[in-house]
Structures are given as structure tokens and as C-alpha cells.
Amino acid sequence: MKPGIPKGTRDFSPVEVARRTYIFDTIKTVFRKFGYQPIETPTMENLSTLTGKYGEEGDQLIFKILNSGDYLAKADEQKLSARNSKLVTFQISEKALRYDLTVPFARYVVMHQNDIAMPFKRYQVQPVWRADRPQKGRYREFYQCDVDVVGSESLLNEAEFICIYDEALSNLGLKDFTIKINNRKILSGIADIIGKPELIVDMTVAIDKLDKIGYDGVTKELAEKGFTATDIEKLRPFIELSGTNTDKLDVMKQALAASEIGKKGIEEIETIFEYLSSFELNNAKVELDITLARGLNYYTGAIFEVKSNEVQMGSIGGGGRYDDLTGMFGLKGVTGAGISFGADRIYDVMLELNLFPDSATVSTQVLITNFDKLAEKYALPVVAKLRKEGISSELYPASAKLQKQMKYADAKNIPFVVLIGDEEMKSGKLTLKNMHSGDQEQLDIDEIIAKLK
RNA sequence: GUGGUUUUAGCUCAGUUGGUUAGAGCGCCUGAUUGUGGUUCAGGAGGUCGUGGGUUCGAGCCCCAUAUUCCACCCCA
């Protein structure tokens, strides 16, 4: 049969794994620095844990797992004959691959509520699966790197998320990226004012197109979606929103004066900015963007999204606050907030910008050549000693032609080669070749170790 | 889920209105060089043209189906 892998999945070769590890390590280091601790959850969850958490579209993107055994035997006859897959899903599948890390985390918190100390700050780096159609920066299997805190209402958490984004992405070498921030309460406030909460998504989508289709285009689209002339007049300050973050806040304060929830949203954003003023950011630009809605329907406060300004790519991170997530699993009154890094997209961005250091790909530091059986025997304690000293080394496993062995070292990017032949064995001075410069020198084993350490 | 696109040597890709034996570059192997890679030279191996049907005297090329790649929409990391 012809080998292949499922659509939207990928193999990772040594160089790619090294680079991905570099990304994960960089991000995890920052997570730990901010006081977060790692957890892991199973690859599969009960299907009932996941359904209904991501909206109707999200439910369709969940990879379901067929029950073991004869999964059709117990299925309802009538539902089966109806040939409607939605009817039989729960009869033939009770497990699914995790769709994100936030819902499993909420489940974890509820199940372990007696063991964890609040506020609980956790990070989690694991793959997730979505039955989406693949395209640029979109995979069916990809890694998320999440930090979430539960049991803390403080907006300091939100401010620190911005710091985490800034530090991690800056450490990875990204020079120009924007952290967009919005607040669900502001969106609710706008809906309050025009009295059409059900159209809030159409509204944000339309306003988002301002720079593409202009003010008239936006109003035209709004009218098509069912907004009256009075509505549009009330929306005017939001559509024309521009300038600095403080400019925007000033305008909105007036426009949302009549909405309690809207005012609360603005207040929250201001508090976050206030916290932020005590921290110094490296490369991140923070931008208030009221068109940021995000599909996940459980956000209740701040909403974040991160985009690179150097590369055309979907968002490389996102998150927000959700007051009622664990409520779905029966634990009321526990607030949570978190953000996620899309490691695979960050990888694609870094690749395009050539940001991976070469050092991330060096593995073996020295290759010992293998001339013949006698030299091999002589080399065994040498390679053992090098390894004992912590130097990655390998002995070529056959007495092949030297040319072949040198080519191997070259292909594997091994920086040093030790040659051991008759003369070296006689004198105890081994030949150390620097593959980069081509220089060679005769050294005893201790001198080589000192040189490579 | 909707619309489009890609698929030919290990890799990146040519391949004329359908016409004999399908090409190039890079890589790989062998030798020049029995103890020296990355440069050079000579030679060599490697293809069911994504898969399955169809049209035709004849298909890499045309038609249908299907898989796959990438892209846009929707949504999202």
C-alpha cells in the first residue's frame, strides 16, 4: 500500500523538532517566570464534555471517536435508518479528541477543586485537533500553549497576559506584532444602546471593514443587515473610532454613558492599561480594537488577539476572560482568564522571517572516524570518555571509506571530526579536524575535551 | 460546508494543437583521490506521469470520479 498521513497533519523531521522544541521551551520559560505550573490532560475527552462549548459550528469541527467493539449493534434502529449523522452521533461515539485546552482545563478544575489552591495558575502545552479544512497556517492537528488562571478576578492577570505575550514573542525574535484588546462588556454596551443584541456580530464584522469599503460602505452593509438609520447614527462614534487608545476610550465613554455594562467594560480596559503602565513592554504594540469579537461564546470580559505585522498570517494567539466556564460543569462562581499561543503559526512566521538560530539544530558535536577493526577498538573508550564529559559524540559504526564518513559528518552538520589511524594510535595524539575551517591539529584526548567543552 | 488550484525522478519543476524511447537542475551512487567533507571532472542508478474509469488508431496532455496540496470565503491558533 501507498504510505500517507491524514489531511492536515504533518511529520516533523529532526530540524523541525529542534525548532519546535526551541519555541516550546521559550514560551514555557516565560510561563514559569510568571508563576504558572504545568498540567496535562488526556488526548481524548468524553464527547459530552466538549459538545455545546464551542457553538454549533465548533461542534461540527470536533473529531469524534467511534465506540469500541460493534458500535452499531446498540444504535437505535429508527435513528440509523433516518440516515442523519447528527441523530446517531451520540449512539456510536462517546469520546472525542480535544478541541482546545481551555474546556478540558475547566473540567480539570471542577474535578480537582478540592486539591487545588485558588487562585490556580496553570500552563498546558499539548496538541489539539479540529476537523477543519486545512489552508495556510491552519492544520487539523496543532499545538496550543495555554496559560489560564482561575479564581482571581483581578485585572492584573489580564495585564500580565500582555506582558507574557510580549516577553515570549520578543524572546523568539518577533520584532513587530500587535496585541489587540477588547472587552465583551463594551460590545454588550453597544448592543444595549441600539437595543439589538442579536445583531452584534454583524455589526462588528461590518465596522471591521471600514478601511476596505469606507464609511458609506459600512453603513450600507449595516442597513442590509437590518439596522435602521437611527441605529446607524448611534453607531457612528464606534464606526469612526480612531486615534490612540485613550482617544478611543474618551469617545466611547460618552457614547456608552447610558449603558451600565458598557461603562464597566471601559473601566476594565482602563484598569488594565493602568497596571500595564508599571510594566515595560519590549516589542508589543497594544491596541484597543472594538471589532474584535472572537467566536468562542464563553468570553465575558477582556478579549485578546495577537497578530504579526511582519507576515501575512492569521492570529498567532488569543484569549480572554470567561466568568462562567466551570459553571457548565456544575461549579459556579469561579472566574477564569487565559491566553493561548498558536505554536504552529508562530513556527511558520519565524520560518518566513528566518528567525531560527543555527544553534537550535546542532546535535552531534564530534564524529570519530572508523578506519578498521583495530581503530574501532581503540576508539571505543575515546567516545565513552567524550560522552562522560557531556560531549555529544558518535563513532562511525562501520569501517567505511573515509570519504563517506566525512560526507556523513558534513551532511549532519557535525562541527568536529576526530581521526584515529595507525599514527594516532602509536602516538596517542589524535587528529582533531574543524569541519568549518578545515584546520587540523594533533591533540591528546584531554586536550580535545578541553577544546570542545 | 462553498468556490478555485496543485499533483510528472529523492527534492524543485519543464513537457508545444493529443503522435516514436518523458526531460532539466539539485540530490544520491561509483570513480579520478586505498587517510580527508563542503569545490571540480567523468560515469551511473532512479518514473505504473496521484489513483480508478472513459474518449481515441494513439493520452503526461481531453472527459468523469476520487484522493491530495495550496488559496479565498466562513470560522479559527
UniProtKB/TrEMBL annotation:
InterPro entries: aa-tRNA-synth_II (IPR006195), aa-tRNA-synth_II/BPL/LPL (IPR045864), Anticodon-bd (IPR004154), Anticodon-bd_dom_sf (IPR036621), His-tRNA-ligase (IPR015807), HisRS-like_core (IPR041715), HisRS/HisZ (IPR004516), HisRS_anticodon (IPR033656). One of its GO terms (biological process) is histidyl-tRNA aminoacylation. GO terms for cellular component: cytoplasm. Residues 1-381 form the Aminoacyl-transfer RNA synthetases class-II family profile domain. The keyword Disulfide bond does not apply. It is found in: Cytoplasm. SUPFAM superfamilies: Class II aaRS ABD-related, Class II aaRS and biotin synthetases. Its main location: cytoplasm. PROSITE patterns: AA_TRNA_LIGASE_II. PANTHER family: HISTIDINE--TRNA LIGASE, HISTIDYL-TRNA SYNTHETASE. Homodimer. Belongs to the class-II aminoacyl-tRNA synthetase family. This is Histidine--tRNA ligase. It comes from Solitalea koreensis. The lineage of its organism: Bacteria, Pseudomonadati, Bacteroidota, Sphingobacteriia, Sphingobacteriales. The gene is hisS.
